[in-house]
Amino acid sequence: MGREKEFRLLGQWLDLIPKRLGKSRVLLGRRKSGKTAIVQRIFNRLWSENRNIIPFYFSIREKKIWYPEFAIEYYRAFASQYISFLERDERMVRNPLSLDKIREYGISKSPDILAEDVDMLLWNREREMHDSMWEIAYTAPERFWF
């Protein structure tokens, strides 16, 4: 299938998402086949159209990482991209905010859930409740709606 046809099909799929009709998709391909470029193009389209779909992109590096740190890294990426979308400031996409900055934003501008999530991440980390940390992180995208 050619790239233009792929992008046309992906565009149709993106148009179905706000209606909750777009089912999950998987991109499979060999290394260096352009999967990341496709995902970045989708992200850029959604971000620039500024509709009611908030794009989120997270790349998992090929290195060992401690589970709680992975949860925090994931949450920082999501919250930063969410705030970036709301504020229309693309810098936060490439440079995720610290947990302190995310919490500060949640308190000053809302949604309050940002501050609550950060507090709970840190509370769970202190108590070594790593599964709870991950649950907060991975459920964040589905808990944030317009």
Shape: globular
Overall helicity? 55-70%
Largest sheet: none
Distance between the termini: 35 Å
The helix tally amounts to 7
Gyration radius from CA atoms, angstroms:
17 Å
Low-confidence stretches: none
Mean pLDDT: 87
- The helix/strand series, from N terminus to C terminus, equals HHHHHHH
Secondary-structure class: mainly alpha
The gist of it:
The chain has 146 residues and is mainly α. The protein has two domains: 47 residues, no CATH class; 77 residues, no CATH class.
Give a description of the structure.
The protein is mostly helical. It folds into two domains: 3-49, no CATH class; 67-143, no CATH class. The chain has helices at 3-16, 35-49, 67-87, 91-94, 99-109, 112-126, 130-143. It starts with a helix and ends with a helix.
Keywords:
64% helix; 7 helices; 0% strand; single chain; mainly alpha; 146 residues
Strand and helix layout:
Elements: H1 3-16, H2 35-49, H3 67-87, H4 91-94, H5 99-109, H6 112-126, H7 130-143
